[in-house]
Input
Amino acid sequence: MNRHVRLLACALALLPAVAFAQDGKKWKPYQFTGNERYEYKVLVTDGEEKKESMFALDVRKKGEEDWDVTTSYRNTVKKSAQGAEILMGGMGMGLTPALFLMNPLFGAFLEQVELKEGEKMSLFGAGVIKVTKKETVGGRTGLICELYTKQDDKDQLTWVCTVDPALALPIRSVTYEAGKEKYRMELVSYKKD
Output
């Protein structure tokens, strides 16, 4: 686990709920309503190569207390692929794209930020979250939130996500490694019935 993630984990553990008493609209990640489907385009950058795939999450009410949850991803693999590569859909090591959509640690901080342009929240010297502007992705409009973490005493962009407060997941999520884009997930469609 790298240094900035450890610092964020420690800060999260120490945060009392009253520290977040702010006015304004807040986002509540993972608050699904049921009978909804999210579809994302996934781009993974590996050196100079970019791989595109699709990820879908379908949440259906199955009664008063139960939901049926279905996830799927589509990925192109070579016909000559063998064994586990076919089983894993070419993603490698069984990793699901959902891991790159929203880091739960970062999401815990993000839900505390007031969603208005120009808002900032310090992460106890470990970094900062900035709300920059509105954008539309997959037919939904949200606010861009940027997470900067301290690396070598400088703020480095680590994660950018666009939040529509009406949805349980970001409409765009971009993860950076060493200052370069590594994973991008963009909402293609959202359906509620």
User: Anything to note?
Assistant: The longest helix spans residues 3-14. The chain has one domain: 32-192. The CA atoms of residues 156 and 178 lie 8 Å apart. The chain has four helices and nine strands.
